[in-house]
Amino acid sequence: MTFPLLQHKVPDFYDCFRLIRETRFELPESLAQPVVWLSLLIIVVSILTSVAILLSLFTYRFRSQYYQQKRSELEKSYLLLLTGIIFEEEDEMHAQKKKKLIRHFQDEYLYKYFNRLILRKQLFTLFKNFSGSAHDILRNLYFELQLEKDVLKNLNSFFYKRKIQAIRELSLMQVKESTPRIRKLTTHKNSLIRNEAQRAMLDLDKENPFDFLTGNSQYLSDWDQVNLEITSLKTEELNIPYFDTWFNEKNPSIVQFCIKMCVRYNQFDAHPGLIRLLHSDNPKVTLEAAKACGELMIHESAKALIQLYPQTNSDIQKVILNSLSKIGGADAVVFLESLYFNAPDDQESFSAALALKTTGLYGETLLAKALKGNQQRSSLIAQHLLDERL
Amino acid sequence: MVQYLNTFFLLYGLFITLSYVVLAFISAAGLYQYIWANRFVHYENLLSTENAPSLSLIAPAYNEEKTIVENIRSLLSLHYNNLEIIIVNDGSKDLTFQKVVDAYEMTKVPFYIREAVHSKPIRGIYKSTNPAYSKLILVDKVNGGKADALNAGINISSFDIITCIDVDCILEQDGLLKMVKPFLESREQVIAVGGVIRIANSCEIEDGRLIKTHIPEEMVPRFQVIEYLRAFLMGRMGWSRMNALLLISGALGMFDKRIAIAVGGYNHDTVGEDMELVVRMRRYMADNKKPYRVVYIPDPLCWTEAPSDYKVLGRQRNRWMRGTMETLWTHRKMFMNPRYGILGFLSFPYWMLFEWLAPLIEAVGLLYFLTLILFGFDQWYLFIILSGTVYFASIAISFLALLFEEFTYHQYQSKRETLLLILTAMIEPFVFHPRSSWWGIKGNIDKIRGQKSWGEMTRAGFAKKK
Q1: What is the DSSP letter of A146?
Q2: Which of A226, A235, A367 to mutate to test binding with chain B, by most B CBs within 10 Å of its CB?
Q3: B399 to chain A: which residues are within 8 Å by CB?
Q4: Cβ neighbours of residue B74 under 8 Å, at least 6 residues apart?
Q5: Contact A381/B112, CB-based, under 8 Å?
Q6: ipTM, interface predicted TM-score of the complex
Q7: In degrees, to the nearest 5, what angle opens at C-alpha B101 toward C-alphas B98 and B106?
Q8: What is the distance in angstroms between the Cα of A388 and the nearest Cα belonging to chain B?
Q9: Tens-of-pLDDT digits for all 466 residues of chain B?
Q10: Which one of B45, B50, B109, B229 makes the best mutation probe of the A interface by having the most chain A beta carbons within 10 Å?
Q11: Do the Cβ atoms of A223 and B181 come within 8 Å?
């Protein structure tokens, strides 16, 4: 190949034009290298991938928009039909109208899975937002249209998202026949399915809602525990068991959850078990038990907590101080006072003083005295804690 | 020799592309799982339980008088119950401090400070006399830089989980609920959680809340939109899934305070204090053989104003490069060290080769090919071919990031915006990337020269865009 541009000094425009025209662009030998072929291959692959990505992007967008539009149209029609039946008075005409409506649904919409899916979602939303007789009407409609069949099938789905959706729907619609199958899922290896099934059991088996805790070896994360706790509070007519029943479970996360639930439902009778759990091998269980002793104000636990204090880690120590402040009593106050003035660590002294303040009048008086005392640290801490805004 | 060099440059480009492709696949799996799992999550449950962890939110402020009052109002409206908001005025030279004091009726309180990590002297702690702002604490301290201000905030904080945030960022209302979840659900100890940062230029913002997203009208921030999508949706998600994430953006990060204190808090001697803290915390956990995780949330949680001119952006990128170099150098022992597992064998070499050295290798490559042309080597054709390879591979990767965005959060909804983003991705390698590489090279030079400054970051503020 020749490239004469570089061999000239400063060519003018016409020279350049002539030279470019005269230049013979031949493939040099170097272009036969594998490096070059690999590069060209990458270029081709990249171009094809880019085109494919852009096509996917636009196809996805148009498809979403199409389904969105279809969904909103269906939702509008469904809403009109459903609200009509919910708000009408129950009489003979109503029964006839309902029959007509069911036939209309079956003939016009339910032959397609997508239409059934939207109807289920619509019913599901309305069901959550209504109560009383509307609840029953919607539920009966759900069964009369045999919508639960799709959902029961989804319980066996390979995809966890379908399974979860099915569990949620079946529990809300109170499909009792699904209870044994959902109960089995309470020990599923997928934590999302497991927790959904556990929460569903509170809806489906109100007599023994927490039976799934027995012998359950799967980890119950703090997040799952919060969900179960809130579901239990929101579920009506739930038979709340004595949670100390599960204090001997081998799974520490189950024990931890049951301690929290004892506090939530003020199960003071659990106190012997809670004091025993202060000496658990699992630090998370110990921490939870120490917290519960304070929340339930178990006076009997004060000595055990004080004894435990020097042997345990700083997280549990902080909880013990907080619990002692709630329990109060002479033992607790003497212990906190000594820690406030003598603890080598500033943080520890501060936590003890804070606990002391929470015990009540005696604590506050003591802090007020310390404020004027000679010990600088105690005085500064007292000054901080006696300010109402801190 | 020429042939070897050609092969080296091609292989280098190939490895970068391949690493992006692998990360994209891993991210895709992570995103798919996260998005689906999240459809069944009731974050609001955390608002109804006493078992939700308490959080301390620390926001350093330096010369933010234009926007500070609005920014604090935005933080006060966040959905979370057990929360304290600590604003650290890092010796601002303007009226930042006075504006906060006046707007929120703050007065000095006798706060007992327990110095767990080192920071410059605190002049005073302020609390509001109005109970409506009882969550708010204002710390006034001597100027010491962002790391120092964050350390002061750590010393003041009462709770075990701290959230460090840039005060001018707009956090989604449920952002804290989403970020705290990994701390509750993981069996292993979670030491840090990071969130996605998105660009708020040209977005509609009212009362410190994001109302509607738009792509930036200006070109410079629009390039950064593409960059951020690539980095956050494709890069960090992948690294997080491998538990090999080295960086949580300084704009938003949640940390286990006990571990942050155990490692000595933020490092004052680096301009990349965000990355350095994460690396140090990870190193500490690995040294103590404790199982742990650093988690990353792909939800768009935090919106920030990106630099809209090349000058300011250049200063930011220069600082990022110096920060990267400082962190990699400080923790060089981790490099290929089996004790640190995937961090030592994958994250560290990746950051070194493809984050630190990439601009330098690109520059050497460019000079090399120019030399070939000038001296008449016929191999200069290769330059065209290799550039083409890099160009087409890079736009394919940018398009992939756009596809991820479309499949997941779909923030840019109009066709015009999508087309503009596609066009931006196509011209980015010519217009933006060379500059970005130059700033990287400049960062290397400045680091060698011993420059330690942050460089001034000027922002227009969101108030204008109401």
Answers
A1: T
A2: A226
A3: 49-50, 53-54, 57
A4: B170, B171, B207, B208, B209
A5: yes
A6: 0.88
A7: 155
A8: 10
A9: 777 777 788 788 888 888 999 999 999 999 998 998 888 888 999 998 888 999 999 999 999 888 899 899 999 999 999 999 999 999 999 999 999 999 999 999 999 888 899 999 999 999 999 999 999 999 999 999 999 999 999 999 999 999 999 998 999 999 999 999 999 998 899 999 999 999 999 999 887 788 889 999 999 999 999 999 999 999 999 999 999 999 999 999 999 999 999 999 999 889 999 999 999 999 999 999 999 999 999 998 899 999 999 999 999 999 999 999 999 999 999 999 999 999 999 999 999 999 999 999 999 988 888 887 787 776 667 778 888 998 999 999 999 999 999 999 988 888 999 999 999 999 999 999 999 999 999 999 999 998 877 766 666 666 444 4
A10: B45
A11: yes
Q: Nearest-CA residue of chain A relative to B423? A: A54
Could you tell me if A148 and A142 are in contact, meaning their C-beta atoms sit under 8 angstroms apart? yes
Whole-Å CA distances, A202 to B115, B386, B452: 48, 63, 60
**Which chain A residues are closer than 8 Å to B37 by Cβ?**
192
**With the C-alpha atoms ordered B274, B275, B278, B281, is the resulting torsion angle positive or negative?**
negative
CA distances from A226 to A233, A285, A330, B42, B327 (A): 11, 16, 35, 10, 38
**Looking at beta carbons, which residues of chain B come within 8 Å of A47?**
392, 396
Q: Rounded CA gap, A251 and A215, in Å?
A: 8
A381: its two tokens:
């801490």
Q: A219 to chain B: nearest residue by CA?
A: B187
- Helices A376-385 and A330-342: crossing angle, nearest 10°? 120
- Decide if A168 and B48 are in contact by the 8 Å CB cutoff: no
Cross-chain Cβ contact A230/B49 below 8 Å: yes
Question: B67: part of which helix (H) or strand (E)?
Answer: none
3-state DSSP call for residue B345? helix
How far does B118 lie from chain A, in Å, by closest CA?
15
